[in-house]
Amino acid sequence: MATRMTRLYRLAGPLLGVVLPAQGAAAEAVEMAPVRVTVLDPDGKPKRGAVVEVLRFEGGDACYSNLDVGEGDEYQVIAKLPTPKSGSLGMQVPVAIPYRVRVDVPPYAIEWRERVYAGAELTIQLRPGAVVEGIVKNDNGKPIPAEKITLHAPYPRKLRYHSHAGDDGKFRFERLMPGAATVRTESSQGAIHGGHTVTLASGETSRVEVTLDHGAVIRGQVVDAATDEPIEGAVIGVGWTFDKPVTTDKDGRYALIGLGGPYANNLYIRATGYCQQQIPRPKAKTGTVTVDLKLVRGMTVAGRILDAAGKPVEGCYVAVVGMQYTNQQETDWFSTRTDKDGRYSIDDLRRELTPVLLVRHERHATLTMAIPPPGAQKRVTVPDVQLRPRRILRGRLLDSKGMPWAGQLVEVGGNHHG
Asked: Coil, strand or helix: which one is 309?
């Protein structure tokens, strides 16, 4: 992940956080503007010492849609400051980039605001947090552990809180904002449960009881398709997000307990040096099913990203995306970051999926380009890619009476033509 240096200065009046990209003295100038935040306590009085963060989520936050699960959870702390006695502060950030603002003041709810841009002025009043307490049981009513319990928060979008349940099956989430949330449960002793909805209310505790079906047990062996040698360390999971993952042993064998229930999905498998593979979910809902798998070697796509002046761009997000539609959608989305020389290398790609290169960097225009079909090549070297400077679209939205229309989402879409 690209890093940033945050330099903080105390000026006359509110604290200001000045954020400078860590690109050296020769870096191009970045247009900045303040995000101003005022924090009030539940009685409406200014709150001193509230920790205010401006975050940049790598998943795009409405800039673009993607299937990169890992990138969606990554974020950069652009600025972080405590509020002064007045409860108000300003933080200078680059313009035309969507941010999230997080305000943390225990024991109140952690407050979030999304789609915040430079120039915004926010007033955030603290409120008691909502609590979710729950227990996970098997279909015989016995409490069981759950390795991963995810609460999909009502706001902001795509925000996930993670917890787990011990042998007593109990779990807890606290300091939540109000709204309708969804609890998703994964346990090695039962099938995935992903549809329990709970309504969160400030200062109140909601209780959840999750019952997991036992489901079917999937066993098998994973081998190299060319040599029939077992593959150790291959990962098998449910769905393209690899839920309930298990790993093969030295003999290439695995056992996945609990496939079934209303949230059953296809099996996916990946291993270093091999193409990711999708297997239709077995129809059996109980018992033991044997699924042996053969993996083929993948290809590598490599290259270099430069700026308009021909200098390497470090920390650039580069993804190779491949899709095809047969009986079901087949998708590869693998990504990396460029090194100090602007170089990238992405492995384990399928040759049969027509690959497209996606390149993103905050200070440059986003680029997509087709990669020539690889044929039998094991490695495709893409010619140097030069990014153009980013352009900022500015405007004003008016309603039918010609009055400014605030708070509306404006999206821009289109095709890339080189």
From this structure: coil
Of 269, 259, 334, nearest in space to 295 by CA: 269
Q: Which of 240, 324, 323, 221 is nearest to 278 (CA)?
A: 240
- Find, among 186, 182, 190, 183, the residue nearest to 142 by Cα: 190
- Beta-carbon count within 10 A of 157 CB: 14
Measured CA to CA, the distance from residue 293 to residue 167 in angstroms comes to 33
pLDDT at 196: 85
Note the Cα 268 to chain centre separation in Å.
19
Amino acid identity of residue 203, one-letter, is G
Phi-psi domain of 243 (left: phi exceeds 0; alpha: psi -120 through 50; beta: other): beta
Contact, 16 vs 79, CB < 8 A? no
Report in angstroms the alpha-carbon separations of 74 from 61, 148, 158. Answer: 11, 18, 12
Q: What predicted TM-score, i.e. pTM, was given to this entire model? A: 0.80
The rounded Cα 306 to chain-centroid distance in angstroms is: 26
Whether omega for the bond prior to residue 94 falls within 30 degrees of 0, making it cis, is: no
Q: What is the dihedral of CA 63, 67, 69, 70, to 10 degrees?
A: -70
> Position 54: which residue type?
V
207: Cα within 13 Å, side-chain hemisphere = 2
Higher pLDDT, 167 or 355: 167
Question: Nearest Cα to 46, choosing from 100, 3, 83, 92?
Answer: 83
Q: What is the rounded CA–CA span in Å between residue 120 and residue 37? A: 8
So what's the pLDDT on residue 357?
Answer: 93
